[in-house]
Specification:
single chain; about 775 residues; alpha/beta; eight-stranded mixed beta sheet; about 20% strand; globular; binds cytidine-5'-diphosphate; binds magnesium ion
Length: about 775
């Protein structure tokens, strides 16, 4: 076995070639038989529809059905779990065994840290226990935060089912731009960002009696900030209970942060996992993961369990799914004469990543009919926050997409980086929930020791903090540098954020919140966007700006399927407003609205209906906030130059100056950046000399994405303390912009030649 090391390897074929050994042979025979058995189909459909909900239950129905291989799934079986099933499932969870002790500890202490393996019932059970024990007095409620939106929603759904109530009533959830709670809500799941925003409205969080900070080990930015805020809050709200739950990683840190809070461990129940490292470094982790998954599939019985592949993000996940389909089709065509992937009926592939709509994400919980194997391809969302039952094999590509921030150039990038050892262990652990498992790592054992950090660097140390700093300032935290961070962010990042907020007019010269800053903080969007929105209201185009801001808050609206790229690009270019990608988005929305928000119209024009739909919802939410802040909603009609100017007001900090074909220099740092190939600006004969951009992306090179052409005088108007305009004289015969001669304003030789104005950073 050339590609794998480790104690026992099920692979006997050296180069990944899938030769037919005895096991595979029998599997393929079974497969052929299944293919013939078309009567299964009608039942399948009924089953899938009926059980989508029921499968949210952790009853391992998958397993149950698989074991009873001879019994067909009954089409009349709706899959809805009975009360009894639910109660049994709840009682079988490790958390249940120590329920009364947990409650006692929480009663006795203001802060408790609860540690437990993934799947032990922390997220779904703790809130219910607190509710049952009546720990909240005076009609207060229980809040439970999640770092991820998907988890907040799916867990709320699950708990509502367990408590036998309608979602949104006694049990609800709240995520940015979507509130599914009511006055009856007793248990509320929410993202950590939502709790932070609630703290803005009500500093002492009066309505909560208990707050569970779930998945604290993930150390998301907002979770860290909440923990810091609780340091102050605990003294002011003696009656509030704080429960911090964490996977087994590094939990003592939380306990010592809160002066030695009790650590409560839920005894684990895990099965042994065999870890198999790659023998050689792999050059293409997508390819290797696909081959590994296929090897597993071909060499093991379907009834042994499902496969979970960890990938970095949406793109890789889709590439993995595509490659997997393609390779499987090749193999099956040789063996079984299958010509299309759709004809393969013993595998179902489930991609899962956060940009995927919630209803589709929920499909991963669905129970498959017998004789079918699930291959889930997930981001690290499946590491701890989602538990998919029935996984026996894990394939770990060894990387994840990590947000990294460079405060010097203001570059916030999502970069594919090696995971930490803690991540790797979590990933492997997913194979051992229901029985002994196998974890295949697409990296060598040496790499695991040499290249991997023990822990992932907390988000607060690798992200832009402008939003957070604005929020803390609004919460009255004057000295940000002294805020009790559990791990402090780099000083340079904090200073860069303070500087940016100052630039935007949110902070005055002394670092105090201005009226503008206070208004900006009311919007759950980036400071640059809230600034542009506020400026647009006083310039008569907030109607347009609120659309642009909403469109910028959703995943890409343009759809570009790999097999119809040219056609999609043509469709996109029809929406282009040549001087601005922002206005292009405004144009798309406007046309969609004129076409009565039609889904059909979207698919005809290669637009993602769901993204637009979401933009429409966000738009409504933002307008509500605007109304509550008495910010006018006014339209500039067809006059769009003023919209560009307002965009400039929020983004003059992110400006660039042309330096060559498609190339720009970042105004402040001089760094070379490239116009993103999808930009509408390519439609303008000459590229504009000055632009502002929404984001700086780092892929193979630095790209500026979502760009608008601006007048340098606007940049001066909004960024006057940073920029200055010089008139310049182009040196004859030496046209390179780098050799320009600066002349003072009174030497007016270049008058009437606006191209020869040069905007630069002061004192540079
Ligand atoms: O939080 P922790 O990882 O400790 O466990 P949990 O999320 O409370 O999960 C406990 C059980 O509930 C597991 O068996 C999950 O499979 C199940 N569950 C589910 O079926 N559907 C969900 N949306 C969430 C959990
Ligand atoms: Mg959990």
């Amino acid at each position: 076995d050339a590609s794998q090391s480790g104690a026992v390897s099920p692979f006997k074929n050296p180069d990944g070639e899938l030769s037919m050994n005895a096991k595979k042979g029998s599997r393929l025979v079974a497969l052929r038989r299944l293919q013939k058995d078309k009567t299964n189909r009608a039942k399948e459909t009924a089953d899938i529809v009926g059980t989508a909900l029921g499968n949210l239950l952790g009853l391992k129905e998958n397993e149950k059905n698989r074991q009873s291989a001879s019994t067909h799934v009954d089409a009349t079986d709706t899959g809805m779990p009975s009360r009894g099933d639910i109660d049994r499932a709840r009682k079988a969870l490790p958390a249940y065994q120590i329920k009364s002790q947990i409650i006692q500890t929480i009663r006795d202490h203001q802060v408790t840290v609860v540690i437990g393996e993934t799947g032990s019932g922390k997220t779904t059970q703790l809130a219910q226990y607190l509710n049952e024990a009546g720990l909240c007095k005076d009609n207060r409620i229980i809040g439970c935060t999640q770092p991820r939106r998907v988890a907040a929603m799916s867990v709320a759904k699950r708990v509502a089912l367990e408590m036998d109530v309608k979602l949104g009533q006694e049990v609800g959830y709240s995520i940015r731009f979507e509130d599914c709670t009511s006055s009856k809500t007793r248990v509320k799941f929410m993202t950590d960002g939502i709790l932070l925003r609630e703290a803005l409205m009500d500093e002492t969080l009066e309505k909560y009696g208990c707050i569970i900070i779930d998945e604290a080990h993930e150390r998301s930015l907002n979770t860290d900030v909440i923990l810091g805020l609780f340091k102050r809050l605990l003294a002011r709200r003696r009656d509030i209970k704080l429960i911090i739950t964490s996977a087994t990683i590094n939990a003592t840190k939380f306990s010592s942060f809160f002066g030695g809070a009790p650590l409560f461990t839920i005894p684990g129940r895990t099965f042994p996992i065999e870890i198999v490292y790659s023998k050689h470094p792999v050059s293409d982790y997508v390819e290797s993961s696909v081959m590994q998954a296929i090897r597993i599939h071909m060499s093991t019985g379907i009834d042994t369990g499902d496969i979970l592949i960890f990938m970095t993000g949406q793109e890789d996940i889709e590439a993995t799914a595509d490659t997997l389909r393609q390779k499987l089709t090749e193999i099956y065509s040789k063996r079984l004469g299958v010509s299309r992937y759709e004809e393969i009926d013993d595998i179902e592939i489930f991609p899962i990543y956060s940009a995927l709509p919630a209803d589709i994400q929920n499909h991963i919980f669905k129970r498959l009919e017998q004789g079918k194997r699930k291959i889930v391809i997930a981001t690290n969302i499946a590491e701890t926050s989602l538990t998919i039952d029935g996984i026996k094999y894990v394939v770990d590509c060894g990387y994840s997409k990590l947000k990294l921030y460079n405060p010097k150039i203001g570059l916030d990038s999502l970069t594919i980086t090696p995971i930490s050892k803690a991540n790797a262990d979590q990933r492997s652990g997913r194979a051992g929930r229901t029985g002994p498992g196998m974890a295949y790592r697409m990296y060598t054992e040496e790499a695991a020791y040499d290249d991997m950090y023990n822990q992932t660097i907390p988000e607060i140390q690798r992200t832009n903090l402008s939003n957070t700093v604005l929020l803390l300032k609004s919460l009255g935290v004057d000295d940000i540098l002294r805020f009790p961070f559990i791990d402090p962010p780099p000083l340079q990042t904090l200073l860069a954020s303070l500087y940016e907020l100052h630039f935007l007019g949110a902070l005055d010269n002394w670092g105090n919140l201005t009226r503008m800053g206070s208004k900006m903080s009311k919007f759950p969007i980036r400071p640059s966007l809230s600034k542009a929105l506020l400026i647009s209201a006083t310039n008569g185009c907030s109607e347009e700006m609120v659309t642009i801001v909403s469109m910028l808050s959703v995943p890409m609206v343009f759809y570009r399927p790999s097999e119809r790229q040219k056609e999609a690009d043509r469709a996109r270019s029809r929406f282009f407003v040549p001087e601005s990608d922002h206005l292009t988005l405004l144009n798309v929305y406007g046309q969609w609205r004129s076409n009565r928000y039609s889904a059909k119209w979207c698919s005809r024009h290669f637009l993602q209906y769901r993204s637009l739909q979401r933009a429409r919802e966000i738009r409504e939410q933002l307008i509500k906030i605007m109304q509550s802040q008495e910010i006018e909603l006014v339209s500039s009609g067809t006059e769009w130059d003023i919209v560009r100017k307002c965009i400039c007001s929020g983004f003059s900090y992110q400006a660039a100056k042309i330096s060559g074909l498609g190339k720009y220099n970042h105004l402040q740092t001089g760094m070379e950046v490239q116009l993103h190939p999808t930009s509408a600006l390519y439609g303008m004969g000459d590229l504009p000399p000055y632009v502002v951009y929404h984001e700086l992306l780092m892929t193979t090179r630095e790209y500026i994405n979502c760009v608008t052409s601006v007048d340098p005088f606007w940049l001066m108007e909004f960024g006057g303390f940073l920029y200055e305009i010089k008139r310049i004289k182009d040196m004859e015969g030496n046209g390179g912009r780098g050799f320009m001669d600066t002349v003072s304003d009174d030497q007016d030789e270049t008058e009437n030649q606006p191209d020869e104005l040069d905007l630069r950073v002061k004192n540079c």
